[in-house]
């Protein structure tokens, strides 16, 4: 809102002068709605940014949990099941050599060992995929 005061001179007066003043009063600014709209947009963008950051943090947490879980599962298969089957096959081979164990029983153990190796390979693959997902969530390769 602008306000002005102008002086008026008579045409017959010589040397008369005029005076004017303009004052801006921000309380009566007609653009307050635009200012409020801009402030609302700034607040909205801040909230969107916070939501994005929280989503990334959640994605990283899930990826870390998956990496930990898949590593433990692959390790359990390798040090537990596969190690026990190797030991059982070694003992079975000695038993076949001593003619105490039927060779068909050894074949069953070998089949179980192959199945366990497949499960271990699948667990290792799942762990590698979890690492790739973690790298993607972090936005770059792991150190």
Description:
With 143 residues, the chain is mostly helical. Helix content is 71%, strand content 7%. The protein has helices at residues 32-97, 103-138; strands at 2-6, 20-24. The mean pLDDT is 83.
Tags for this model:
143 residues, mainly alpha, two-stranded antiparallel ribbon, 2 strands, 71% helix, 7% strand
Write a short abstract of this structure.
The protein is mainly alpha-helical and 143 residues long. 71% of the residues lie in helices and 7% in strands. The chain has a two-stranded antiparallel sheet.
The number of helical elements comes to 2
Uncertain runs with pLDDT below 50, 5 residues or more? none
Q: Strand-and-helix sequence, N→C?
A: EEHH
Radius of gyration: 41 Å
What does the largest sheet look like? Answer: 2 strands, antiparallel
- Give the DSSP E fraction (strand runs of 2 or more residues): 5-15%
Number of strands: 2
Average residue pLDDT? 83
Strand order of the largest sheet: 1-2
Structural class: mainly alpha
Helix content: over 70%
Overall geometry: rod-shaped
Give the end-to-end Cα distance, rounded to a whole number of Å: 61 Å
């Amino acid at each position: 809102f602008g306000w002005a005061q102008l002086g008026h001179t008579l045409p017959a007066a010589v040397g008369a002068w005029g005076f004017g003043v303009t004052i801006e009063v921000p309380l009566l600014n007609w653009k307050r709605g635009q200012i409020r709209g801009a402030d609302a947009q700034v607040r909205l963008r801040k909230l969107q940014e916070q939501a994005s950051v929280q989503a990334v943090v959640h994605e990283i947490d899930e990826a870390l949990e998956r990496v930990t879980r898949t590593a433990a599962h692959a390790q359990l298969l390798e040090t537990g099941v596969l190690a026990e089957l190797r030991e059982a096959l070694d003992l079975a081979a000695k038993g076949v050599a001593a003619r105490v164990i039927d060779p068909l029983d050894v074949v069953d153990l070998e089949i179980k060992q192959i199945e366990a190796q497949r499960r271990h390979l699948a667990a290792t693959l799942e762990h590698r995929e979890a690492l790739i997902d973690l790298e993607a969530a972090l936005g770059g390769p792991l150190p």
